Amino acid sequence: MMTTNELRIVVFPGDGIGIEVMDACLTVLKQLERHVGGFRLITEKLPAGAGFYRETGTDITDEAMQKARQADAILLGAMGLPDVRFPDGTEISPHLKMRVEFDLYAGVRPVKAYPNVLSPLSDKRNREIDLVVLRESTEGLFASAGKGEVIEDREARETLVITRNTCERLFDFAFNLARRRKARGRKGHVTCVDKANVFKAFAFFRKIFKERALLYPDISTGFNYVDAMALDMVRRPWDFDVLVAENMFADILSDIGGGIMGGMGMAACAEIGDHHALFQPAHGTAPDIAGTGKANPTAMFLSAAMMLEWLGSRHELEPCLGAARGLETAIENGFAGGTIQPMEFGGPHGTAEVTRAVLAGFGA
């Protein structure tokens, strides 16, 4: 692949606090670019989401989708508003279209404890939480999105889809992720989360996992039914490394992850495929606090750090990798030193104050 230091980023601020945290994120990225040097992010903001749908009758234009397809990466704030729906009652969420259109099968949801962020778990081992929920993001129960049916107002049906092609790539991604984490001192362990004791589709899911595991003898494996996994994420999350699961199951587990970290304002996300990637915080649009300056931008910043890491690896750009590490370190140090105390957790710092603390953390 040709190496370039100019990277095109399509930006979708979205709705609610998505707009505010994205503005803060772009400020941080621009200062990182100047501070580190060696790469240039060429960003283009495009409208999409519930507000755009309310104004125009479409959630995202074909032109915007094409620009996203051609970009080096997609950076997204948050989309959706509770009072704006499609005629069938479903949420306005064009990022779901992007997952399918760009084959973003690997949803990477880090779950990590940060210093001085109070966890709802009383066990002191909560400080050791550092796992990843890997969400299959293109099929599973979500394959039925927009395709379900309601029969004579008496019965509703949705169809779950599990394919070998997607599972093999997902599990390979999981094992390679665990391998990289093992090199940094983590466990090097992948847990397959399913419901194979009840559903043939999940027995198939587990069968493929076992087949792919044979290709990675250096990575240990385990299995957990999704209901038991939900319990274990509350009871002993520090024992896990990489959890891989079907779309709906991982959607739910990753929100539990946000909860045990302290709140969704810490929940970063990367949606990665073989040729494209989208980065966004996993939280919602929080219209109740939109425009007040209270939003916690940490998840947006952490998602941007994941973008920089992915771009650096993909384009062999060490400055991008260094910028990712610098941003992560500034956030970690900010929480440790008390210069980042988001209002989300009862602190005095809103979006602007957290942003300033992060900028100060890498000398900008």
Write up what this structure looks like.
- The two termini are 32 Å apart.
- By secondary structure, this protein is α/β, with parallel strands linked by helices.
- The radius of gyration is 20 Å and the shape is globular.
- The protein has helices at 17-36, 50-56, 62-70, 94-101, 164-183, 200-213, 226-235, 247-261, 298-314, 318-337, 351-361, and strands at 6-14, 40-45, 73-78, 106-112, 130-136, 149-151, 155-157, 189-194, 220-225, 242-245, 268-272, 277-281.
- β8, α6 (200-213) and β9 form a beta-alpha-beta unit.
- It folds into 2 domains: 1-103 and 272-364, 3-Layer(aba) Sandwich (Isopropylmalate Dehydrogenase), CATH 3.40.718; 119-261, 3-Layer(aba) Sandwich (Isopropylmalate Dehydrogenase).
CATH architectural grouping of the largest domain: 3-Layer(aba) Sandwich
Rg from alpha-carbon coordinates: 20 Å
Mean pLDDT: 95
Approximately how much beta-strand content do the residues carry? 15-25%
In spatial order, strands of the major sheet run 2-1-3-12-11-4-5-10-8-9
Return the domain count: 2
The helix count comes to 11
**What is the third-level CATH name, the topology of the largest domain?**
Isopropylmalate Dehydrogenase
Beginning-to-end CA distance, first to last residue: 32 Å
Which geometry do the CA atoms define? globular
Please give the CATH class of the largest domain.
Alpha Beta
Major β-sheet, in short?
Answer: 10 strands, mixed
Name the CATH superfamily classification of the largest domain.
Isopropylmalate Dehydrogenase
* Helicity range: 40-55%
